[in-house]
Amino acid sequence: GAGVSQSPSNKVTEKGKDVELRCDPISGHTALYWYRQSLGQGLEFLIYFQGNSAPDKSGLPSDRFSAERTGGSVSTLTIQRTQQEDSAVYLCASSLDPFTDTQYFGPGTRLTVL
Amino acid sequence: AQKVTQAQTEISVVEKEDVTLDCVYETRDTTYYLFWYKQPPSGELVFLIRRNSFDEQNEISGRYSWNFQKSTSSFNFTITASQVVDSAVYFCALSGISGAGSYQLTFGKGTKLSVIP
After folding, report:
1. Do B50 and A48 touch (CB under 8 A)?
2. Inter-chain CB proximity B103 and A58 less than 8 Å
3. What is the rounded distance in angstroms from the CA atom of residue B50 to the CA atom of residue B44?
4. Would you tell me which residues 21-50 of chain A have a C-beta closer than 8 angstroms to some C-beta of chain B?
């Protein structure tokens, strides 16, 4: 079946602009995660969704970052007033069950802030 | 707090050599899962194996094998008879219940494996 998909695959933006990153999880997966991968920080957790609710937003680095999930499926990560330090690969993962199941990752969105 | 340490930043081996990637973890959870993921140059994280904290049996899958030892908090990964296609960054990860009820993965920094033909 189809895996996790993310769009766009690459995004180049200017400092101060807002960006939206999209994640389509594997069908039927109730848990959805966003991570960020950067050279300096490695792989960092950002936010976790169970259904449409986000019980854990502890990884969001600032209030410029927000995310939502609708219909228990698609999720959008929004970064407002982008900064150069936001440049990274943003990865989305989903799992059937939040604890006992494996998280499967999408191909990521490479964000470059000029 | 959870922590995963992959002390080897980069490893180079000649094709057909065996190589072991080390992973040491820290957690206060009694129930947890350990994972290995592979990230080839294409960039996508590919799941390799999951092991729960109650199952210390070693596992072999083709040329891959994993050694889980709770006594030393280690979950090492061995590739036998390495091939060029094994060249990638390998991540060890740990999941447990965070204070917010999440099951986020805590990743090590990764080990970059280069297999030289």
Report:
1. no
2. no
3. 18
4. 31, 33, 35, 42-43, 45, 48
- B55: which 2 tokens? 């199952």
DSSP letters spanning chain A: ----EEE-SEEEE-TT--EEEEEEPPTT--EEEEEEEETTTEEEEEEEEETTEEEE-TT--STTEEEEE-TTS-EEEEE-S--GGG-EEEEEEEESSTTTS--EE---EEEEE-
- pLDDT digits over B80-117, tens only? 999 999 999 999 999 877 666 667 899 999 999 999 99
pLDDT tens per residue across span B27-41: 988 888 999 999 999
A34-54 burial string, b = 16+ CB within 10 Å, else e? Answer: bbbbeeeebbbbbbbbbeeeb
How far is A16 from A82, CA to CA, in rounded Å?
A: 5
Distance CA B90, CA B88 (A): 6
Residues in chain B: 117
